[in-house]
Design a protein that fits this description.
The chain is α+β, with helices and mostly antiparallel strands. The chain is 36% helix and 14% strand. The chain folds into two domains: 62 residues, Alpha-Beta Plaits (2-Layer Sandwich); 168 residues, NADH Oxidase (3-Layer(aba) Sandwich). Bound molecules: flavin mononucleotide (FMN). Flavin mononucleotide binds next to strand 7 and helix 10.
């Protein structure tokens, strides 16, 4: 699991310093050794070693990518120009960009490095159309049946559009990505959102349109058969959905959002709270 090239090791101890699991220590020869039980496979030791002396979990330093310095203005422009795309070309994305998008997902961070996300792609428009027709058909049926109407409340105001045959949920997207987590993942509610956020930015940097899809996530919740269709493993819960594909719209400029509330906390801001305030804040935080 852990190999050191003694010729290359300069005994700097950076791998030990950066091991958050404290799984590494020097032996008598000042060579790092590992306690495998503690290691949680984050590979920081491999990444930090200045001489590439260290292999871990079967990963060799020569197979890692180089790190380039990025242009922060370009990254900020990507963040600002990201949009929710609701118009797509009815065609498959080329396989090169599809593969790049899939591969990128292996690099998204997860809490405690619990590397067990599941990504279900609909990467073929024919499959997407089958999925779309099934879901839309079911919704139209349920919106016209009284008892189910209450559950489908979310869609009632779109009834006319559904009956018109508008693709209210999937926006005509040729592709969809569903991310799921094991229900016991330490950060089950956060990891999937991080993954989709990275996916969205990388996709849009390659001119692939994306749209977060709360509607589709709701459908996954109320139509359990969809999880089987998407091959989501047992013990996993579908967390969120992103539509994507070649956009059929082009944005000429960024938007100018209303600012959020952003505060800088100053020293000595701790206030004496009454018991009632403490209790209220406690339960508010638990929500
Ligand atoms: C968590 C989340 C869920 C969303 N769900 C949907 C959706 O179901 N359908 C849709 O058309 N847009 C959806 N959106 C897109 C938002 O409506 C969109 O972000 C907002 O209108 C601002 O537009 P922009 O993303 O282009 O800045 C969702 C966005 C987020 C972040």
């Amino acid at each position: 699991m852990f190999e050191i090239d003694k010729e290359k090791c300069i005994h700097c101890g950076q791998c030990i310093r950066d091991c958050s699991a404290r799984a590494l220590e020097f032996n008598d020869e000042k060579i790092p050794v590992i306690n495998e039980d503690k290691c949680f496979k984050c590979q920081h030791c491999l990444a930090v070693c200045p001489t590439g002396a260290l292999s871990v979990c079967g990963k060799k330093p020569e197979n890692s990518d180089k790190i380039y310095s990025q242009d922060p203005e370009m990254i900020l422009n990507l963040i600002k120009s990201r949009r929710s795309y609701r118009h797509y070309k009815a065609q498959n994305l080329d396989s090169e960009r599809m593969e790049k998008l899939k591969n990128m997902l292996n690099w998204v961070p997860t809490g405690c490095n619990f590397h067990k996300l599941h990504f279900a792609f609909i990467d073929d428009i024919e499959v997407m159309n089958e999925f779309r027709d099934y879901v839309n058909g079911k919704i139209v049926k349920s919106l016209t049946k009284k008892p189910v109407q209450a559950i489908m409340d979310k869609f009632n105001k779109h009834l006319k559009s559904f009956l018109n045959g508008d693709d209210v949920i999937f926006r005509g997207a040729p592709h969809m990505l569903v991310v799921s987590t094991p229900v016991n993942a330490p950060c089950y509610n956060v990891d999937p959102m991080i993954a989709l956020s990275y996916f969205e930015l990388y996709a849009q940097s390659m001119n692939v349109g994306t749209c977060w899809c709360g509607f589709a996530q709701f459908c996954l919740m109320v139509m359990p058969e969809l999880s089987d269709y998407l091959q989501i493993p047992k013990g996993y819960k579908a967390s969120y959905v992103m539509l994507f594909g070649d956009p059929d719209i082009k944005y000429a400029r960024t938007v100018q959002p209303e600012p959020f509330e952003i505060v800088s906390v100053k020293k000595g801001e701790f206030k004496k709270q009454g018991l009632k305030d403490k209790i209220l804040r406690f339960f508010w935080n638990l929500r």
